Amino acid sequence: MKTSIATVSISGDLREKLAAIAAAGFDGVEIFENDFLAFDGSPAEVGQMVRDHGLEITLFQPFRDFEGMPEPQRARGFDRAERKFDVMAELGTDLMLVCSNVSPISLGGIDRAAADFRELGERAAKRGIRVGYEALAWGRHINDHRDAWEIVRRADHDNIGLILDSFHTLARKTDVDTIRSIPGDRIFIVQLADAPQIDMDLLYWSRHFRNMPGEGDLPVVDFMRAVAATGYAGPLSLEIFNDQFRGGSPKSISIDGRRSLVNLMDQVSRSEPGIAIDVPPMPDRIAVSGVEFVEFAADETEADDLSAMLASMGFGLAARHKTKDVTLYRQGGINIVVNTEKEGFAHSSYLVHGISAYAIGLRVDDAKATVERAKALGAEVFEQRHGPGELAVPAIRGVGGGVIYFIDGRSELSRVWEIEFDQLESVSSGGAGLVSIDHVAQTMNYEEMLTWLLFYTSIFRARKSPMVDVIDPAGIVRSQVIESEDGGLRLTLNGAENRKTLAGHFIAESFGSSVQHLAFASSDIFATVAALKARGFQTLEISRNYYDDLEARFGLEPDFADRLREAHILYDRDGDGEYFQLYSPNFGEGFFFEIVERRGGYKGYGAPNAQFRIAAQKRTIRPTGMPRH
Question: Using one digit for the tens of pLDDT, what is the confidence trace for 402-415?
Fold first, then answer.
């Protein structure tokens, strides 16, 4: 499988783009004409620069408003093509993209267009050049790949072929199975893009909201299954127009791009086992059954503060590491690790971010296979020296440079707590009815969200939910959930666009993206509240106005509403499901804990309550610039 990406897909000048594309492991690059025109160098110099990076130019594009033009525009179109052929010869590429005509003076007619392409094919053949025809979704006369193929078929020239673009086909909801009847050798290149499902003008949608396969809502896998059935064996190329990507890191966007292609073709190969697909060997997406532990990096003073808060929530000191300054707190199926080591990665993380939940451990079917798949998809493997008697726990780097460890039941990893820790069975607080980690909330800059969305869904057997807007008094925070099929793993990704929001404040004060809050599940939140109160747990106070509206909005019984009000429990309802939420005050630079109870199959995360929770939290934040405690 040869991979390619259009230069228009990432930010930077042409030199920066090529360096990032090569570093990400692509085989080729589409030269977008505007990037070439803006570069201060000859076509030959550009071609050599591409080859010096170990890349090939898979396509020169776009050539516009060619077919079906009246005279004298028709003759000028052929003259323009000849000049582009000259440029291509110097660049060292043999394939040019012609997109379907959008000119208001263009003439319709399949035969007229086919005749133009037949003549263009004759001219191209003399130069050793091929021409691919692509149907734009907003083309004036041709906006469907079926019509574009018919023009190519009638042109009947070896140097004229079809270019397929997933966005143009899927945006118009064209039946992808119609691709299966096209001979694979008549498809010159396949361009891929995904997009969120938005009802808007096709051109505007395409020019601003495309993203990598797997990051959007379009059925790109179905599209590629149909392409694979044709026997097509050429390059798979990304053509992404996205405002966010244009301002993002060319390195990270390029890595995302290659990851998206490898993941896409892995999915296609598993869904079309009878078709030979050249894709790097890797394990299938990994099932996750839950969060085994969350680990905090801290110094001794902040570790004492955290320990006190955990004790107030009913956690007991369960174990101490045999050789390190690491302690384990436990309640129900929740394991919280506090690391105060003076060296190693945890300490380095503390020096940069302060006290933070820098690592999470996931329970997976096969820890070794998880790392193998993640590595094949471009993830960075995390390794750290381990002492005698310690396990080499497989891990990769995650959000904000943190660590994701993997624990499975098929190896000694399942005994990590008894192998590496001295148990303190006699130490117990009795608990407060917390049974598991309901979800982990990771906060990041908004431009990172698609990166981590693709990261999680390509490695793990998990699905994404639609994005929702969380209202902060200072702006909007975008939130998207990733869940395993059985709900054992729930991650909420929250993207901040400015530092005035609570999420943005957390990123700024913690110097990077990280876990901002942990939500613990209770089997009876009112019993938990009583237990917390007895332990001196301080609850985030919610405005009483919220409860007056809540009672009216849901028609709650007054006694029930009073119980919620007095305990500062937020409430939501979805069909027959109910959701209860209780929050701690902020800890450190905006980190906090949440306690939830789900009843009746509630699937959400209490998004309607977020603005009221955030308003309450902001009332407790110290002014920016005050020293850390």
Answer: 999 999 999 999 99
Considering the entire predicted model, what is its pTM?
A: 0.93
The answer on 127 and 34 residing in a single domain is: yes
What value does the mean pLDDT take over residues 348-356?
94
Q: Of the candidates 380, 402, 423, which is a domain's last residue?
A: 423
The SS3 call for residue 157 is coil
Cα distance from N-terminal residue to C-terminal residue, the chain: 54
Q: What angle do CA 349, 350, 354 make, to 5 degrees?
A: 125
| Residue with the larger pLDDT of the pair 589 and 115 | 115
Cis peptide leading into residue 608 (ω within 30°): no
**Contact call for residues 570 and 529 (beta carbons, < 8 A):** no
Q: What is the tens place of the pLDDT at every residue in 58-76?
A: 999 999 999 999 999 999 9
Q: What residues does 55 pair with on adjacent strands?
A: none
Closest to 205 measured CA to CA, from 173, 247, 164? 173
Give the span between the Cα atoms of 131 and 161, in whole angstroms.
6
CA distance 478 to 534: 37
Query: Rounded to whole angstroms, how far apart are CA atoms 199 and 195?
Result: 11
Distance CA 210, CA 90 (A): 31
Could you tell me which of 174, 197, 179, 275 has the C-alpha nearest to residue 466? 197
Residue 46 shares a structural domain with residue 193 = yes
In a domain, 353, yes or no: yes
Reduced to 3 states (helix: H, G, I; strand: E, B; else coil), residue 588 is coil
> Which one of 393, 423, 453 terminates a domain?
423
Distance of CA 110 to the CA centre of its chain: 41
pLDDT in tens, 499-515: 899 999 899 988 889 99
Closest listed residue to residue 236, CA positions, set 224, 225, 221, 246: 224
Q: Note the pLDDT of residue 240.
A: 96
Name the phi and psi angles at 239, rounded to 5: -125, 100
Q: Is the dihedral of CA 591, 596, 601, 604 positive or negative?
A: negative
Number of residues that make up the chain: 629
Q: How far apart are CA 312 and CA 426, in angstroms?
A: 18
d(CA 24, CA 556): 55
> To the nearest whole percent, how much of the chain has pLDDT over 90?
90
Contacts within 8 Å (CB) and 24+ apart, 540-549? 540/568, 540/582, 540/583, 540/584, 540/585, 540/592, 540/613, 540/616, 540/617, 540/620, 541/568, 541/616, 542/568, 542/570, 542/612, 542/613, 542/616, 543/612, 543/615, 543/616, 546/570, 546/612
